[in-house]
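Preliminary data (for renewal application), zinc ion complex.
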Amino acid sequence: MKILVISDIHANLTALESVLSDAGNSDAIWCLGDLVGYGPDGNECVSRIRELPNLLCVRGNHDLAICGDADLGVFNHEASEAILVSRRMMTPDTLQYLRSLPEKLVSDLVTLIHGSPRNPVWEYILDTGIAAENFSGFNTQLAFVGHSHLPLAFTVNPANGFVERSYRLAGVPLTITTRAILNPGSVGQPRDNDPRASYGVFDPESMTWEIHRVPYDIPSVQQRIINAGLPEKHARRLSAGW
Ligand code: ZN
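Predicted structure:
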């Protein structure tokens, strides 16, 4: 069984299409939010994602902010500028879809959220301390999160109960034997100095998790960002992945 896990698409349709074609067929698709914001193709990304078969999707902080449902004071200057420009670009249909997304989805095995189990939209899980506090915030074996734009895995060591953090390299599968918080990295704006689009594949039968990275046509997206009047910083950062 193959479940494609994507997050932080950030209105980058070129990266999204490259990921979907690289991933090929899957049994289900889980999207962990931030479909829009930063990039030029918000409406197109939402249209593409909402039509994917067997989709589960939660909303992220940018989805919330572009709908006008969050205080822009929590974003830095260029991020809030991008949100204001993006908001004007969104169709009513896109906004309605983003508003309809839940903050959290829970099944027998997994919890899906954008930020963290205890603070689904806003909290970043970057270190073992924050991860450890969050393991009591969900009841399933696994939680999948986005938000940091980093392909990190946090697992509980069964011998001592300590939480361990690993940065997941593409092509190195992780066999999950304990509770874990897993992040697929970002499709549309990676921040680990690797500009390639990032996604994860989860197999609940073999309990394996693997990150994949895929190159895409970055200059074409940068040009659309500039043309749309979005902050130039968000074009520049795509080349280096920060
Ligand atoms: Zn994001």
